[in-house]
Each structure stands twice: as structure tokens, then as C-alpha cells.
């Protein structure tokens, strides 16, 4: 980490050499090209010695004006631009958009499509948490877990590729259901993955979770209280690690989540280890959901009948879902035409990043990687 940073100035006017002696404050750049930022995020960090005084995130390096682009696309087309936001939650992003359009159209989705959507969402959640786990361990110096995580994640990617035709930025969920029915191998391969995951998950705890060095670098590091998590608008595992009940699947159930048996995972310590444990335990819950559904996919249509060109009635429509990183809200203002008049996405990463300065102040610079790792940032989701 230190080799990638660059000292740019001192805040007190002292020379750099004086500041390095601990007599003044330093401002250093981390990013926008830095392995620990996991994307083009630029942090300007003010230090007193190795103690963090302030962190200022600078955004804009991957801004594409996605919301404005969506306003010139049809209600079928705009959905797939969101696969380029949090690209590790493509299915869930598409799902949120489809639900909003269906809400405007008052469209009923066939039961088969609802189950397929939830299966895809949970596979996506596991794949995202797998990538986070491997990258998180690698950031803290353990390289082997990265290969272990990708071993399981590749199995999910193979399933996605077979049914959706893509391994990352999928375009599968649309208004009324899904684009195509599941592949004939889908159920067999998902069952195989469930068995693989169960046989390997103990290795995660042996390699990382129970490692005393890892725990010492995570516990009491980057503490965020429940009140502060709410104040910063944090959602997802970041907020649940501070004891906030905020799982949209429980609070505002959509599709068939209200019929499924699963727990909302929360921890109370609010530190980096709590956020880590929430994601680990959430993978178990997603596996449980897959087990409940994989042999109970209803027969019937995978897509409701809709017009080729969709028009939403004049009005405002909002829907929210639980992505791998927290709450994604989709807000559409319609003037009654074939394209949205206005669109706004409430993505989880921006609010979660806003808490970084608060949780890092007074900590050592070496702890920053652990804090950022447990925020699980995907920069194109923040900088749309």
C-alpha cells in the first residue's frame, strides 16, 4: 500500500521532511489507480504520523451519466445499462428496474419467472460475496483464499453463462419475467454447486475466519455504531454489521421472499470483523434459499405477455431491492411516453462510502485497507 501512495503536500506549511519526522500533517493520495480501492476511487488522506486525521473521497473518474442515458432509452432498454453499475449484482439491478416498470404497468409476473429471478439473485449474491472474500483476504496479505473463492465462483459463472449467455454483466431479467427459460442443466448444476459449497465452506473458516492474525487486524477496527450507520444512510452488510435491521427482502418483501425461510443476519460490534461475519453468514442463508427453491420451480410461462413497446402511465414509481451491497432503489417519473422522463438510482455504495471518514479518523493508516475491504465498494455503482 505504501509504495502506491504519493505525498503531495503538508497542511501546516512544514517541509515534507519535518512532517515525516512527526512534527506536522501530511496529505497523501491513494488512488485513483490503487489495488486496495478496487476501482478508480481517489482518496486524499490527511495524516499525523501514521494516524488518520481525515479522508476525502474524490469521485468522477468513471462517471458515465447513466441516469441521463436511461432517459433516452425505452423501458426495455434502460434496464441493461444498470448491469454496468454494480457489475457484481447485475441480475439484482435488472430485477429492481423490471419490478419498477411492472409496478407502473400493474403487470403480474408468472410464478415460474418469480422463482427463477430469486434463484438468480441468490446465486449472484453468493458469487459477489465469494469475490469479496477472496479480495478481502488478499488485501490483508493472504493470497491463497483468492484462488479458493474463485474455485466456487467459477461454478456459478458457468451456470450463468449456460442460461444467460454471460458471466458478468448479464441481461436476463426484463419486464414481465426473464428473457429465456432456464437451461435444461440448470437444476442439476445448481444442486451440484450447493454440494460443492457445503463441502468447501469450512476451508474459509480454517484459512481466514479463525486466523488470529486476521482477527487482530479486523476486530475493533473501523467501528461504526448503529446510530452512525443509520445517520450515514448505510445499508446492506455494512449496516447489519452495526446491528441495523435493513434487509429489504424482510422489510419490504418482493417476489416470493415472504414465503421463504431465511434469517436476516446482523452483528452488533460494528467493527470490520462484524461486517466480515455478516457476509459469511449471508452466504449460508442464500444456500438455504436455493435449496428451498431448486426442486420447486413451477411449470408454466417464464414471461408474461406484454406489448412490444411499453408505455408507463403518467406518474412516479419507486421500487427497492436488496443487492449484495445493500439497498438499491429505482425511481421513475413518467410523462406517459415510451421513455422515462426522469430516473434516479439510490445505490448502496455511495452512502456506505460516506461513512469511511468517520470510521477511520484516529485509526492507523495500515488499518484503512481492512475498513475499505469490509465496505465492499464497487466504484461504478457509486460513480455512475
Structural notes for this entry:
The chain is 44% helix and 14% strand. The chain has 384 residues and is an alpha+beta fold. A hairpin with a 2-residue loop joins strand 7 and strand 8 (326-334). The longest helix is centred in the first third of the chain and has 29 residues, at 111-139.
List the helices and strands and how they pair.
Elements: E1 6-10, H1 16-20, E2 25-30, E3 42-48, E4 51-58, H2 66-70, H3 90-105, H4 111-139, H5 144-164, E5 173-174, E6 177-178, H6 186-209, H7 212-218, H8 226-231, H9 236-240, H10 248-251, H11 272-293, E7 315-323, E8 326-334, E9 342-346, H12 348-354, H13 356-360, H14 368-375, H15 379-382
Antiparallel strand pairs: 1-2, 2-3, 3-4, 5-6, 7-8, 8-9
Helix pairs in contact: 3-4, 4-5, 4-11, 4-14, 5-6, 6-11, 11-14
Sequence of secondary-structure elements: EHEEEHHHHEEHHHHHHEEEHHHH
Percentage of helical residues? Answer: 40-55%
N-C termini distance: 26 Å
- Report the major sheet: 4 strands, antiparallel
The chain-level structural class is alpha+beta
The number of strands is 9
Shape: globular
Number of helical stretches of at least 4 residues = 15
Name the strands of the widest sheet in spatial order: 1-2-3-4
**Rg computed from alpha carbons, rounded to a whole number of angstroms:** 22 Å
Give the averaged pLDDT, no decimals.
88
Amino acid at each position: 500500500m505504501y509504495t502506491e501512495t504519493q505525498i503531495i503536500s503538508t497542511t501546516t506549511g512544514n517541509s515534507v521532511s519535518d512532517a515525516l519526522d512527526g512534527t506536522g500533517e501530511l496529505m497523501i493520495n491513494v488512488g485513483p489507480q490503487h489495488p486496495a480501492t478496487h476501482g478508480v476511487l481517489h482518496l486524499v488522506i490527511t495524516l499525523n504520523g501514521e494516524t488518520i486525521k481525515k479522508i476525502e473521497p474524490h469521485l468522477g473518474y468513471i462517471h458515465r451519466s447513466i441516469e441521463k442515458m436511461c432517459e433516452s432509452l425505452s423501458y426495455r432498454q434502460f434496464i441493461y445499462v444498470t448491469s454496468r453499475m454494480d457489475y457484481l449484482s447485475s441480475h439484482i439491478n435488472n430485477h429492481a428496474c423490471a419490478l419498477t416498470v411492472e409496478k407502473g404497468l400493474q403487470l403480474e409476473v408468472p410464478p415460474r419467472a418469480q422463482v427463477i429471478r430469486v434463484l438468480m439473485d441468490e446465486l449472484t449474491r453468493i458469487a459477489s460475496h465469494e469475490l469479496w472474500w477472496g479480495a478481502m483476504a488478499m488485501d490483508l496479505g493472504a493470497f491463497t483464499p483468492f484462488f479458493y473463492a474463485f474455485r466456487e465462483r467459477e461454478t456459478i459463472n458457468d451456470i450463468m453463462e449456460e442460461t444467460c449467455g454471460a458471466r458478468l454483466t448479464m441481461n436476463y431479467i426484463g419486464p414481465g419475467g426473464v428473457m429465456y427459460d432456464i437451461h435444461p442443466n440448470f437444476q442439476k448444476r445448481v444442486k451440484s454447486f450447493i454440494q460443492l459449497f457445503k463441502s468447501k465452506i469450512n476451508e474459509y473458516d480454517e484459512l481466514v475466519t479463525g486466523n488470529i492474525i486476521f482477527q487482530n487486524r479486523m476486530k475493533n477496527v473501523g467501528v461504526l455504531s448503529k446510530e452512525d450507520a443509520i445517520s450515514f444512510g448505510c445499508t446492506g452488510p455494512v449496516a447489519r454489521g452495526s446491528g441495523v435491521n435493513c434487509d429489504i427482502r424482510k422489510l419490504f418483501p418482493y417476489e416470493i421472499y415472504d414465503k421463504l425461510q431465511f434469517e436476516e443476519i446482523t452483528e452488533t460490534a460494528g467493527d470490520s470483523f462484524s461486517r466480515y461475519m455478516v457476509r459469511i453468514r449471508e452466504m449460508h442463508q442464500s444456500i438455504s434459499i436455493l435449496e428451498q427453491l431448486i426442486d420447486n420451480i413451477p411449470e408454466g410461462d417464464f414471461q408474461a405477455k406484454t406489448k412490444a413497446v411499453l408505455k408507463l402511465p403518467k406518474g412516479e414509481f419507486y421500487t427497492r431491492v436488496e443487492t449484495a451491497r445493500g439497498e438499491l432503489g429505482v425511481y421513475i417519473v413518467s410523462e406517459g411516453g415510451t421513455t422515462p422522463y426522469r430516473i434516479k438510482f439510490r445505490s448502496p455504495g455511495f452512502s456506505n462510502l460516506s461513512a469511511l471518514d468517520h470510521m477511520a479518523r484516529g485509526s492507523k493508516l495500515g488499518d484503512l485497507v481492512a475498513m475499505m475491504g469490509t465496505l465492499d465498494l464497487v466504484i461504478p455503482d457509486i460513480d455512475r
